[in-house]
Amino acid sequence: MKKVAKDIIEAIDEENKSVTFKVIEGDLIELYKTFIATVHVDTKGDKNLVTWTFEYEKLNEGVEDPTTLLDWVVTLTKDIEAHHLK
Fold first, then answer.
1. DSSP-assigned states of every residue in 31-42
2. What confidence tens digit (pLDDT) does each residue in 3-25 have?
3. Residue 22 β-bridge partners
4. How far is it, in rounded angstroms, from Cα 42 to Cα 7?
5. Residue 28 burial (CB < 10 Å; 0-12/13-18/19+)?
6. Of 1, 20, 30, 81, which sees the most CB atoms within 10 A?
7. Of 6, 60, 3, which is closest to residue 33 (Cα–Cα)?
8. Is residue 73 classed as helix, strand or coil in its secondary structure?
9. CA distance readout (Å), 71 to 5, 15, 20, 52
10. E-assigned strands of the chain?
11. pTM of the model
């Protein structure tokens, strides 16, 4: 099922290699009062470890945790990696 989210970049930390996004419109706002995603890259030698963190507040107790987004961030991270390896 296709989902839509509009976000803004809240912060870019070049020194710590992280970017923080805040969702402002779309399907996630129907479920969560706030939704913030941060991606961080930790470099060790020639290896990069990418960590995604989701901070969110559910609109009510019946809302599930956003585990369905895990597949999306894995795919996105692999696409970015493929682009950088070209």
1. TEEEEEEEEEEE
2. 889 999 999 999 999 999 999 99
3. 8, 36
4. 23
5. buried
6. 20
7. 60
8. helix
9. 16, 28, 19, 12
10. 5-13, 18-26, 32-44, 47-58
11. 0.85
- Confidence band for 64, pLDDT divided at 50, 70 and 90: very high
Nearest-angstrom CA–CA distance, 7 and 21: 6
Structure tokens at 67: 């585990």
Given its phi and psi angles, is residue 26 left (phi above 0), alpha (psi -120 to 50 degrees) or beta? left
pLDDT tens per residue, range 23-56: 999 999 999 999 999 999 999 998 889 999 999 9
